[in-house]
Amino acid sequence: QRERDRIDRHFRRQGDGIHFNEASLESIGELLAESMAIVRDESNPASLRIAAMGLMLRHPKTYASELQFLAELLIPQSAVDLQLAVISRLADQSDAQVAEVLFAGWRAYSPLLKTRVLDVTSSRTAWTYTLLTQLKSNLVSLAEISPAMQQRLLSTKDTVLASEWSKMFATAGQSDRKQVIEDYQSALALEGDAGRGKIAFQKNCSACHRLGDVGHDVGPNLTALTDKSSVAMLTAILDPNAAVEAKYLTYGVLSVDGRIQTGMLDTETGSSITILSNEGKRDTILRTDIEELRALGTSLMPVGIEKELSATDVADIIRFVQSAGTSESGSQK
């Protein structure tokens, strides 16, 4: 970290017109070359290679070759920790071509890598254009774009992109909420199974909700719900924007480096804000780095979850939530 900070100070000061002597430049060049050699050497521990990776992509003269090399590490033969580290390092760049690099090996990526790549490429406006192209070409499937990510993409300020995403997701079945609720009325007639409901809850709801030993404390505490009637819960699941407390509204943050983040406004200080998103992830952003902050007027819980749930799944989830805190829930508590 100390060496990364030193190199960053060098390039920042050089950009300000402050030039270093030949000895300093040679020292930095040697350090960058050494870091590249460490990452290339497969006999080195993954932790050392990942640490050295932090020194890459910092010199204009070696940027292109280092970018190509990192792209070559995104193959199944590389350890998953190394692949994830490459994606995280590329996520720090603002270069438009990074998105192309990330999608180049898409068909060979594991589900974990695909999720991370989608998360990264949906975080910058320039990269979302590339994501849109990949969807239109069918390299990326619409089924791989989660409802939460759809919500993030639809929140863009870019009017062209907003229109394109609206068309894209409309064809994916973004139906009228009243009709969706009507379509799922059959779930209310089913008894539901709390055991199956726990499994369905863990898969579809636990990123934002916690119930007993399952999930994350992001959305409302479901144990404390005052209305656990099946009708009320069906509406809450299928139409999350019908009634949203102010503290659970989604905010969009556009930072000065072009990065887009969405989530609940968790905490504020005089110098920063913290955004809380799925799986309890917290991102703190300095106020000086904020270009725009705006409430999106929607719940953090995404619309469209019915694409992942059958009527039986919904009935099971409702049963699981209703049984929480009662003697019959047993291990589901």
Structure description:
- The chain has 333 residues and is of the alpha+beta class.
- The protein is 47% helix and 13% strand.
- The chain has 14 helices and 7 strands.
- The chain has a 5-stranded antiparallel β-sheet, with no helix packed on it. The chain has a two-stranded antiparallel ribbon with strand order 1-2.
- Strand 3 and strand 4 (260-268) form a beta hairpin.
- Mean pLDDT is 83; it is low at 11-21 and 327-333.
Q: Total strand count, please? A: 7
Run of helices and strands: HHHHHHHHHHHHEEHEEEEEH
Instruction: Report the span from N to C terminus.
Output: 44 Å
Largest sheet: 5 strands, antiparallel
| Coarse morphology | elongated
**Count the helices. How many?**
14
Unreliable runs, pLDDT <50, ≥5 residues?
A: 11-21, 327-333
Helix content: 40-55%
Secondary structural class: alpha+beta
Major sheet strand order:
6-5-4-3-7
In terms of topology, how is this protein built?
Blueprint: H1 2-15, H2 22-40, H3 46-53, H4 63-72, H5 80-91, H6 97-104, H7 111-121, H8 125-136, H9 147-154, H10 159-171, H11 177-183, H12 194-204, E1 210-211, E2 214-215, H13 230-238, E3 249-255, E4 260-268, E5 272-277, E6 281-286, E7 290-299, H14 311-323
Antiparallel strand pairs: 1-2, 3-4, 3-7, 4-5, 5-6
Helix pairs in contact: 2-3, 3-5, 5-7, 6-8, 12-14, 13-14
